Amino acid sequence: MRSTLLLSLAFGLAASSPLEKRQKIAFQSVAAAAESVIATLPAAALGPTNVGVVATTQAPATSAYNLPSAISKATSSITVANSPNTSLAPTSLPANAKSAAKRELEQRDSAAASSTSCATYTGKGPVVTSSPSAWINDPALTSAATNAPVPTGYVQADGFQNLKGSLQMMGYLTVKSLDTYDTQACANYCDNEPLCMGFDIYYERDPAANTTCSPGKNPDSITFIGCTLYGFHVNASLATNTGQWRDNFQVVITASNGYNKVGVKHPGIYDNIPGFSKPVELGNASIDALFWPPAVFDSVDATGNNKLYTYMGMRSLQQPYDARVCASICSAQTAANKNSPDKQTGTYMPCNFFTAYVLAKNDVPVGLQCAFYMLPWNTTYATNTGYYDYPNWPKQDVSNHYTIYNSMAFTASSFAQGTADFGNNNTLAGSYWTNPNAFHSS
Ligand SMILES: *[C@@H]1O[C@H](CO)[C@@H](O)[C@H](O)[C@H]1NC(C)=O
Ligand SMILES: *[C@@H]1O[C@H](CO)[C@@H](O)[C@H](O)[C@H]1NC(C)=O
Ligand SMILES: *[C@@H]1O[C@H](CO)[C@@H](O)[C@H](O)[C@H]1NC(C)=O
Ligand SMILES: *[C@@H]1O[C@H](CO)[C@@H](O)[C@H](O)[C@H]1NC(C)=O
Ligand SMILES: *[C@@H]1O[C@H](CO)[C@@H](O)[C@H](O)[C@H]1NC(C)=O
Ligand SMILES: CC(=O)N[C@H]1CO[C@H](CO)[C@@H](O)[C@@H]1O
């Protein structure tokens, strides 16, 4: 029956400190699993590598995120889950993941690069001829960062000003080359990229020529002005790319500033996802409900009957926030379940509703979270805004703060049309589903 509350730890309800209400999803377990995936992401998924060369030889610069491949990766591991005990496919390591040990920035040595061997490069930033260690502190460069205006519609990320490193963070979208250190110009790029939630602008000391072709393998320097866009809010603690050696030339970075888009953005790309109606914004909260009818978080109703367990599990994706990927998982899960219904009853678990939100740990994003349900829940149930966790409980020496943002809810369009998929369960449709419109708050 549907009375069990046992889920796997990573997706479940187990509380690790008394501060957590028992129905809440254990974000600390989700985050720990996500962090181990993030640790395996290749450098190219975290930020541009060899940016000066890339951005001065390609216009517009490379795009690091591709929706069709994100969808095919996210849906490739789907297995039938017609029992409420089954957690959806756990976060899996990307097939081509490199080990974290190999994450140091690498020089690009592609075929395209070899056709430009002995190429020379020009930068748009001020040329500063001092040594790399003096270069990073030269006021000709750093004053741009300290005087930069905060662009309209953005806030400066806490402490993210004039850092000596560029961002290395999950959710990297693309890099643009700027003509001047212009925070508004970078913000304009971010505004034109629907998935962009934050950006990093910085100066990078790059070689004026291919180092291998230059005398002493240490050519003059140029100053590249980078503008990198991310599908999450940026955090100063991840401005960790302080450069690298290319032969005898030292690439270094300075004047690195990070900005985040204010408020929840609901880009139009989510208004017409096939099979789903326009999303409802849940702000900084996720749905905190499992059983229908809701009332209390118990598995049986007042007369002792088992309630319907509507929650189907969640996925944590270490890629830019993109609710379309969650939608494709929801649809693929319904199709897989429908294709292999329960042998005895002929019923299956349809995914009729999902939420997509960012889970952050201490302001650092750990993933795009997708949570799946058989029935829709409205904003009344969006009450989980995260929590503080004390990993060494009962000692309170350390605490981690889990928060949520950009939370959105999507309901299958079939509900609006009154042709909802109840998984062949007429009992469910008849007795538990009386007023679908009650679930739509917009
Ligand atoms: C769910 O798991 C519990 C405990 O392992 C088990 O007793 C129950 O039969 C399972 N329910 C289903 C539907 O598989
Ligand atoms: C630099 O020149 C070497 C030797 O000609 C070539 O193999 C390499 O691809 C070039 N690198 C770049 C980034 O153009
Ligand atoms: C929602 O979360 C974002 C990102 O953490 C934060 O900047 C904002 O202040 C939060 N809003 C509210 C109303 O708490
Ligand atoms: C069908 O729905 C009823 C509730 O309406 C539930 O008790 C029953 O377990 C469901 N059957 C299956 C096989 O899901
Ligand atoms: C959400 O649905 C419940 C019925 O399940 C209803 O009582 C409540 O008013 C609804 N809330 C909103 C915001 O529509
Ligand atoms: C995980 C982490 O280091 N998060 C940091 C994000 O940035 C703020 C402001 O600099 C820090 O307070 C957090 O510790």
Can I get a quick summary?
With 442 residues, the chain is α+β, with helices and mostly antiparallel strands.
User: What Rg do the Cα atoms give?
Assistant: 24 Å
Q: In whole angstroms, how far apart are the ends?
A: 33 Å
Describe the global form: elongated
In terms of DSSP E residues, the strand content is 15-25%
Q: Tell me the count of domains.
A: 2
Pick out the low-confidence regions: 1-23, 57-61, 89-115, 434-438
The hetero molecules present are: 2-acetamido-2-deoxy-beta-D-glucopyranose
Number of strands: 16
Output the helix-strand order: HHHHHHEEHEEEEEEEEEHEEEEEHH
Derived structural class: alpha+beta
Summarize the amount of helix as a percent range.
10-25%
> Mean pLDDT across all residues, rounded?
81
How many helices? 10
What is the makeup of the main sheet? 6 strands, antiparallel
Describe the structure.
This protein starts with 26 loop residues before the first helix and ends in a 10-residue tail after the last helix. The strands form four sheets. Strands 1, 2, 3, 4, 5 and 6 form a six-stranded antiparallel β-sheet that branches. It is built from ten helices and 16 strands. 42% of the residues are buried. It has two domains: 250 residues, no CATH class; 165 residues, no CATH class. Helix 3 runs parallel beside helix 8. The longest helix has 17 residues. The chain is 19% helix and 22% strand. With 442 residues, the protein is of the alpha+beta class. The site of one 2-acetamido-2-deoxy-beta-D-glucopyranose has 4 residues, from loops. Keywords: Signal.
